[in-house]
Amino acid sequence: MKVVVCIKQVPDTKGGVKFKPDGTLDRGAMLAIMNPDDKAGLEAALRLKDEYGAEVTVVTMGLPKAEAVLREAMAMGADKAILVTDRVLGGADTWATSSTIAGALRNLDYDLVITGRQAIDGDTAQVGPQISEHLGIPVISYAEEIKVDEKAKTVVVKRQFEDRYHMVEAKMPCLITALAELGEPRYMTPGGIFDAFEKEVTVWGRADLKDVDDSNIGLKGSPTQIAKASDKVKKGAGEKIVADSADEAVDYLFGKLEEKHVI
Amino acid sequence: MSLEEYKGVFIFAQQVDNELSGIALELLGKAKDLAKDLDEKKVTAVLIGDKVGNLVDTLAEYGADRVIVVDDPELKDYRTEPYTHALASVIDEFKPEILLVGATAIGRDLGPRVSSRVHTGLTADCTQLDIGDFPLVAVPGQEQKHKQLLMTRPAFGGNTIATIACPDFRPQMATVRPGVMQKITPVKGAKAEVVEFNPGFKENACYTKILEIVKAVSEVEDIQEAKILVSGGRGVGSAENFKILDDLAKVLHGTVSCSRAVVDSGWKPKDLQVGQTGKTVRPKVYFAIGISGAIQHVAGMEESDLIIAINKDENAPIFDVADYGVVGDLNKIVPALTKKLEAALAEK
Question: How far apart, in whole angstroms, are the C-alpha atoms of residue A243 and residue A259?
């Protein structure tokens, strides 16, 4: 069985987002990490490797420095890594990104494609389902559990909704978008880290994409365009009192609730 | 494509188990609002399901001028492929200028799949929609297009905000975050034009099979509907101690909600969670009690009309967004406030 996992390098927001003195985001001060949902997807793939001996290939699209997350994935146990990078691919929205990644995946054999549900920088959750449509394969989003039937070539996924879940069966090849609930990602092993730096990362450019028109990549291939982007202006703080007694606090709050006609 | 052929604002009227989701009505409210600034004023709801015709009148009362009904046994429960086929076929046939879909667990699967199929842009999880010019300010040598859908959305966990347009493709598609747009006051007895449309459904390799549906048993109130939310965080200390919040909520006819830490500790169910990974709320009054105010929490409540924070940590970031903040012991302040309110309201 062959599993491809799509991963993305994103700025880390976990340790708190860093701001410059002028209140704008300090992207340079944040670490670049493997997107958490993608890591959960990779973990799910590695469990399929443990169980069925699946071959796991990781694919990322990004700047050359995104190679770091591919090395990390190999140190966790991924077998092969592909970096899709080319200046003409830059500025892509989700449509052009998914079209590009689909072009890379057409070169590969796969039974399953796993992507994270969403990346913590864009928060769109669109690229996974869009890749599946470009490839003409079924998609199951928001996966909490994955079970594979190798013989029947089917997969059964626990698919989360707001107030329920569905157990959904799909024919392979199929694309699944992964939730963190799939499992705590494993650590890299010392041997794995060593091996990861011995292994080769395959680098593909524009010319390596299969069946992708020039009009469907990069900034030019992006139907959506940014009209305005800004760091969010933080809402100014209101009043604050340090209450020496509960009575003082209550009188203050009661007064404000009256003033605002809440009571 | 000729962009001029595409007319009118359409919304995907999500239903589950033959019940309209709140987002469908919210989208209608916004669609009506947008249509005012467009040449085509008619608002169309696209209703997809199995034997769902009974929902048409509700859509009319909430602002739909026309309802396109795609009714087929294949559409009984949500599955990506037949729903994509249904919605993409409606787009091909009726050519909407704008199509709004809820940013729900269904919409965030359906929207991207449809946008890929019909080849148009999709902007995710929007919190504001306007009609305006693109580019916003005229640029020499570039055509400025008018009456475009300007889609505003937070990214980066709520730290950045971007306004997106889709000037050269139709429909202009957006998924819209639940709980943000306002429903209209329903017009009793309003009727909509009903169009039955069935593109035909034939099973293919992309069809999935639902083996089992397991519904979460939940009696909890919908925190997105509440006018007053009394929200607790880790600082409340225990599941039992939420009683003091329950009491405060009761005298104010409010509802209790919570932060992620509370859900992670197992004190409250996930349905009550406010924030980036929970629900977005905008009540008239939001009490943040023992909530530190992580950015992910703030992203889900900062649009509240009035924010009141009680926290023992003077430096808690929640005070940066609170209109009124009190640094002190919630265990003393909250019960005392409840008592005073009780007494005052009894007099009225």
Answer: 19
Separation in Å, CA of A196 to nearest CA in chain B: 30
Which of A19, A105, A133, A159 should one mutate to test binding to chain B, selecting the residue with the greatest count of B CBs within 10 A?
A133
CB-nearest to A168 from B210, B319, B333 is B210
The residue extents of the domains of chain B are 3-196, 223-347
Q: For tokens 């992309």, what's the residue?
A: B206
Each residue's pLDDT tens digit, A39-87:
999 999 999 999 999 999 999 999 999 999 999 999 999 999 999 999 9
Q: Please tell me if the domain spanning B3-196 has the same topology as the one spanning B223-347.
A: yes
Tally of domains within chain A: 1
To the nearest whole angstrom, how far is the Cα of A123 from the nearest Cα of chain B? 6
Please report whether residue A195 resides in a domain.
Answer: yes
Distance, in Å, from the CA atom of A118 to the CA atom of A124, rounded to the nearest integer, reads: 6
Of B156, B88, B93, the closest CA to residue B122 belongs to B88
Q: Do A240 and B324 touch (CB under 8 A)?
A: yes
Q: How many CB atoms lie within 10 A of CB B314?
A: 11
Contact A130 B77 (CB under 8 A): no
Q: Tens of pLDDT along B84-94?
A: 999 999 999 99
- Domain membership of residue A255 (yes or no) is no
Helix (H, G, I), strand (E, B) or coil at B278: coil
CATH number of the domain that residue A126 is part of: 3.40.50.620
pTM: 0.86
The minimum CA-CA distance between B14 and chain A, rounded to whole Å, is 13
Q: How many CB contacts within 8 angstroms connect chain A with chain B?
A: 253
Residues in chain A predicted with pLDDT less than 70, given as ranges, are 14-25, 27, 232-236
Residue A50: inside a domain, yes or no?
A: yes
A229 part of a folded domain: no
Q: Which residues of A touch B310 (CB under 8 A)?
A: 249
SS3 state at A117: coil
Q: Considering the domain B3-196 in this protein, what is its CATH number? A: 3.40.50.620
Domain that holds residue A71: 2-216
For A98, the closest chain B residue by CA position comes to: B116
Q: What are phi and psi of A114, to 5 degrees?
A: -120, 130
| B211 in contact with A, Cβ within 8 Å | yes
Residue ranges in chain B whose pLDDT is less than 70:
1, 218-220
Superfamily of domain B223-347: TPP-binding domain (3.40.50.1220)
